[in-house]
Specification:
2 copies of one chain form a homodimer.
Chain A: H1 16-31, E1 34-39, H2 46-57, E2 63-69, H3 74-80, E3 85-90, H4 99-106, E4 117-121, E5 138-144, H5 151-154, H6 156-161, E6 164-168, H7 180-190, E7 195-198, H8 207-223
Chain lengths: ~220, ~220
């Protein structure tokens, strides 16, 4: 066996999390699995959006949901009630998911079946999860109408690093002093490449556009292989 | 000068943040200043609650507000517009306030005037701020109706370490599937000593009880001196 004498490091060493996230992303791309990381404050409607999404997609696609929470496995139970595979990751106090947690949750399932989509619901926190890549192809930040239209500039990293902004609980607009154009302009100032959708999981408004975006994104990674 | 030969450490050394927080709390108690740390998700209504509170208290008390945000000084501007002293602390990415930030913001003002109340509005984050004492006498967690009644057990530390839970945006109850008794029961399971109030900064419902609680808490620390 030849002795290793020299290793060229072609790029700066990535931190452990980023290294693992990049490896996961490559693996998912090779498998044709689109991976989505959902990120928001607590109560912005991540699980409710997932439920509405899965109801429309579960018959056509193989889907896995990874649910991140500090404690309780309530969210995974809500997903399983729809007949969709779900794994609960409880972080035990940690305020965000990291790539190694995703790796540990997903690896045992990797060869059981090929998934078309994996949805990761991050811990409810608009700050810390923005700093941890999980290997996702799409980072999606939710901003709910009740939270207020001033949030993008106050919590900029989530909006800067996402590719999609969903303005959720759109049906509640009449009850709040929320200017959607202002919120959207602030978010686009931070990140001009952001795709912005407005939707309500309760009434179904905007859900079709969101699902179209998911399917097109999956087509894109499949044709990039 | 006698040489120091021996120091008795009577209790376990506190971590730096806790040590500083305890020193700040003692100093505020000595001065008769009640200090309140407001903690919640983004958009639960901390600044709006403060505005409603200050409108009723500003003529009778000397008040300082310390506003924590990741970026922007919008919240401090909102407070100053009411004629109340406010200092913005921007953390530049850090997801919570720490005692040394409070010390740096408050120290230059310490001898200018005696404050009756100091309100600290923490960074909008239901997770990380719960781990950092700031020297407050009262830790107050806000849970807004739109966030959902399942949050206490999912984000337990904030509810475990607070002395007061405010259920905010109470006027929106008819528009949401939020069971206040369920939320309250979950919070009390985690922390039986929690005082729970329901209020709406918009309609004013419950604000009087909240202000009474603040004034009584101040009386209590003043008579403990």
């Amino acid at each position: 066996m030849a002795e290793i004498r020299h290793v060229d490091v072609l790029e700066p060493l990535l931190k452990a999390n980023d290294y693992l996230a990049r490896r996961l992303q490559q693996e998912w791309t090779d498998r044709g699995t689109l991976v989505v990381n959902l990120l928001s404050s607590p109560g912005a409607g991540k699980t409710t959006l997932l439920e509405a999404t899965l109801r429309q997609m579960r018959d056509r696609f193989r889907i896995l949901v990874l649910e991140g929470d500090i404690e309780t496995d309530r969210d995974a139970e809500r997903i399983r009630a729809l007949g969709v595979d779900a794994v609960q990751i409880t972080t035990g106090g940690t305020c965000h998911l990291e790539a190694h947690m995703i790796e540990q949750a997903w690896r045992p399932l990797a060869d059981r079946t090929g998934y078309d989509f994996i949805f990761i619901e991050n811990v409810g926190n608009l700050v810390c999860p923005a700093s941890y890549a999980l290997g996702e192809h799409l980072r999606v930040v939710l901003l709910s109408v009740p939270e207020g239209d001033d949030k993008p500039k106050k919590y900029p990293k989530a909006f800067r690093t996402a590719s999609v902004l969903l303005i959720t609980k759109w049906d509640l607009l009449p009850h709040f002093d929320f200017n959607p154009d202002h919120a959207q302009r602030e978010a686009l100032d931070l990140n001009p490449d952001l795709t912005v959708l407005r939707l309500s999981a309760r009434t179904g408004e905007g859900i079709d556009a969101w699902i179209r975006l998911l399917e097109e994104s999956r087509q894109r990674i499949r044709s990039s292989r």
